[in-house]
Amino acid sequence: MGCGGSVDVSQPFVVTAQFYQTTGWPLELGFRRLGEILSVLAYEEVPWEHWNELNIILPHIELPYDTDVPALIPFGALKNLQRLKWAGHRRQLLESWLPFAPAVLRSLTSLYLTTEYAMQDCAHILFHSINLREVTFNRIHKSFADEPVLPFLAFGVRVERSCLESLTLTSDDDIDPLVQPFTFSSLRHIDFHLFYPTISTFHHLDIWATLRTALLDCYVTEEDAEWIRDQCPPTAKLEFKGQPGSYTIATRPIDGVIYRHVMF
Length: 264
Fold this sequence. Notes:
- The protein is built from five helices and 13 strands.
- The protein has 264 residues and is of the alpha/beta class.
- The longest helix has 18 residues, at 27-44.
- The radius of gyration is 21 Å and the shape is globular.
């Protein structure tokens, strides 16, 4: 990435920050240098308030980071950031030049994250992302349940996230603790890839009444599929994928359900 004089801030633009591993750059120096370049871009050419889309791709390793050095991107500086795509090691959610602090999350409308989280980390992000319309959480892992990197949150009451329209999750941990503390009154699309026994999971989720499309890639019994169908609007399009011998429910017409058996 370089800083030139070619950015027209009156037009939409995307800032992409990508860290390439090379033999000539120690990881800590290269990681820090990437943050410095973004900072120079903001202070000399494109002020933070003009940033509305940012893509950050980091190596999937625990990069060293000196927490005593002041943050390169001041908290609250990205107050108009709307779309964030971020990939990297889970420690960088907390220790980086763009930590996932509430000030970064509040303005986002679209968030796509690829790392290895605890369910609690995702709950932290949802709690502070008050304007999200679509979110993707990849790689939620049960093995990190006792090792969250973001601060603990205790929910006293259910939290309304009325803006959220699309929710995508990939998890080998029970998603109930993530979804249940929230109310998603505008949720239209779900895409769940669940790698754990999901018996009784779906009956606890209050997410079906507003859906237009749903993809559940997990084990779903015929009874659960029928129950979900009854909770969704008549015009909802439902697709179920699962274990060997299970079936997919494709686009559902108002007068019934089309069952398409599939083998994996």
